[in-house]
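Lay summary. Proteins are chains of building blocks that fold into shapes, and those shapes determine what they do. In this project we predict the shape from the chain. Here is one chain we studied, written as its sequence of building blocks.
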Amino acid sequence: MNHNFKVSIDRFLAIYLISLSFFRIDFAGGNAPFLITPQLLISLFLILLILLKKDVLNQKLSLRTGHSVVGALLVLIYFFLTIIFGFKGVLQLKKMTLFTEIIISSIAFFYLFKTSKNKKEIIRFWIKGTLLIQVVWLLVQFSLFFTNTHQSNTAHITFFNYLNPFSHYVGSYFPRINGGFLDPNVFSYYMSFIFFVGKSTKTLRQIESYFVMVLILFSFSRSGIASFVLVYLLQTILTPRKINVKKLVKKARFLLLFIIGLSVTFYYYGLFERIQTALELRFLNSSTSTNIHTEILFYGFANSYESIKTLFIGHGFMSAPFYIFENFRHIGSEWKYVNFHSDYATMIFETGLLGFFLFYYVIGQLVNRKKIKLLAVYVFSLILLQGIFYQQFNFHYFWIIFFLTIEITENKTKRFLDRY
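And here is the predicted shape, written in a compact code that computers can read:
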């Protein structure tokens, strides 16, 4: 590793990247309007750091990076204006406060990352640290599941208000791996970003890439697995390579040993039948949860055009929970059902056509140039595919991945991307 990586700001950026998946830690114990996570506290420090290092903001941006920063700020301003014209409750202002912090801190990260001379080391440190942490989560979640330890029978342990170590599960057959995230879907999306950023920048090693793919598979996220496979196939098509028989045999041998190792482990612990049942339940049977999400999704699209106002500026940023609760009282007030689970439906319903086109114009800066870098294509494709059945724009990692990709695919970092 580069000796210069000892620079504190670079290490700080790497630690922040690692913290992006710490959605299981809430320092407030549920007593705040939103989770007080390590990433939130570190991102607040990023904003303070930028204010103290004003000279960082004076650097000249390319047309593309400038459009990205200005576009994100315009999205922020526009979303606030939709609340003014479509106010339903205080929840919108709370969510707007968090979204503002996400955008501002992401821009702060972008400027600091842009000035770093150790981008590859930062990304490598991020990926290595994140995967090590996933190993810990994996061991904890499997141990809790197979010892029949659930949150319902351990409620007396007070620290679980601050740290949630439990996994989701498919029926009672197998845990759905969700790592540092509370939602297995979001976990699979995040790991997909790590996979393609790591592979494209050559900071993800072969065994680590297999591990990431296994994690995505055992998230049992249908949309996560589907989007990953489609972009993986896209990568195969866009990067045809000469067949090196020696390397191919070496990889095939390693993959075979990897599969044998997993198989022996599953057989030893009697997991084959559990996995088969979990796969059948998750992928072959229609579930009540899926039906509810689909019904809510169609409601979002169908009710976006109630008037000229809602057509163009929507019902107001983060207004969806109010409308969903009023129209789907039969499912109660469970938090998992209070959004459309779709970036497309959310943008159309809450921010109208103007917000929809503004948002995707900004995201489109990933591929908005004559010479398009393949990493940008992969990230952009993931965002488009994952956005069909989930909304990620109100997560810190979404905008960090966006700005990270924008920066490392600039012409000035051509050597950093090797052939990409």
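What the prediction tells us: Residues 119-146 form the longest helix (28 residues).
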